[in-house]
Amino acid sequence: MRLPPGQVSLAPPCLGRPFFSVITPVLGEARRINALVDHVRMVGYGLSVEIVVVDGDPAGSTLTALDREGVLGLTAPRGRASQCNAGVVVASGDRLLFLHADTRLPARAFEDAARALDAGAALGAFSLAIRSKNPWLRLVAAGATLRSKWFDLPYGDQAQFLRHDLFCALGGFPDIPIMEDVALVRAVRRAGGKIAVLPSHATTSARRWEAEGTFRTTARNLALLTLYSLGVSPVRLARHYPPTPDTDRPGTR
Fold this sequence. Notes:
single chain
């Protein structure tokens, strides 16, 4: 297979198809990338799990810090949508799972996700937990999980998963600066696909809520979703979505 420009292959030739391909878009995550790879491998212990790390920094600053063997690394234009789409191009698994750099999977995540897909789900995700002792953030996470189940609308920080061929048939993530995860779920629903939100929890970092304020962040996220649902352009909405705090370089999302 010819690899796209900018790819750094740290993986030996793949024997057979992986059980899952995990696509992780990163930007300024040099301090965390090896721990993330270790986490995915621990959750997928005993399974053939392919890990694809896609760096939005043209210089590959996160990839430079990646020292674990058997990982596919490449650079792509900055943005979760374009980075994830680039990762899918080189992924060889029949099943895909999109994992944000600050999200951690529950035990048996891959087995449970495969079971959901085999049971007829077109796209699935996990319930949400936020890594914090703040009771307000626990309430936020519970509300997000209820929203996901009631409206069939899980977000990307809940580790969305689906089959490779379906993702490609839908055209992948639309090339928009935010709301690409919502757009993908809606595309699945328009096609008549079933959405599954599993009871086990994907746990995401509280760094954005802690840096920007819990009430302000929650209110802004709800407003962005509402405006997007009303047809406001994601390009306009992205102006009100600041970079992710606590990363290794300025200007990260």
